[in-house]
Amino acid sequence: MNDLVSRIQDTIDMKGISYLARCDSLHQMLQKLKSKYSVTEETCEIELAAKFRRQLNSVPKSRNLEDWLSELERTHAQCDERNLLGTRPGIIVKEFIDAIASFDQAFADQWDSIISRGELHNIDFLKIIQHFRNWRLQRAQ
Questions:
Q1: Same domain, 32 and 83
Q2: How far is Cα 118 from Cα 94, in angstroms, rounded to an integer?
Q3: Contact (CB, 8 A) for 107 and 100
Q4: What is the signed CA dihedral for 119, 121, 125, 128, rounded to 10 degrees?
Q5: Same structural domain, 16 and 59
Q6: Is 20 or 60 the better-scoring residue by pLDDT?
Q7: Are residues 92 and 23 in the same domain?
Q8: Which pLDDT tens digit goes with each residue over 29-55?
Q9: 3-state SS string for the chain
């Protein structure tokens, strides 16, 4: 039993050691570690929303743009299921437009103009991505 306690103490940082100082049993030690380090639902949601924002602001320079768009859609869907991105889709659309400006300024300018005129009717994140895909296809022809 002492070997197991020693092994646990060897694997945690110094702050964790002091956190366990008053534990009288292995069970108590494991319970304290679980309560301190286990991931909560709130933590998962915060991490997911942060992941979406990081992905949104990391437009690929060399990687396949379609892979990036697909990954954004997947992460957005996960966030949307949990209502993590707010109730105003125009904000996420604007963030996408700002992010994509480094890759395609003409597309961003066109949509910034639409937004400034207040004409962003019924355009959500998935629709703006589809508009961007269509734009790219038209420009490729």
A1: no
A2: 12
A3: yes
A4: -60
A5: no
A6: 60
A7: no
A8: 788 777 777 778 888 899 999 999 999
A9: CHHHHHHHHHHCCHHHHHHCCCCCCHHHHHHHHHHHHCCCHHHHHHHHHHHHHHHHCCCCCCCCHHHHHHHHHHHHHHHHHCCCCCCCHHHHHHHHHHHHCCCCHHHHHHHHHHHHCCCCCCCCHHHHHHHHHHHHHHHHC
pLDDT > 90: what percent of the chain?
52
Contact (Cβ atoms closer than 8 angstroms) between residue 96 and residue 128? yes
130 and 115 fall within a common domain: yes
Which residue, 74, 82, 138, is CA-closest to 110? 138
Range(s) of the domain holding residue 131: 41-140
Angle at 94 between CA 70 and CA 128, to 5 degrees: 45
Q: What is the pTM of this model?
A: 0.72
Give the max Cα distance, the chain.
Answer: 72
Here the tokens at position 80 are 């949307």
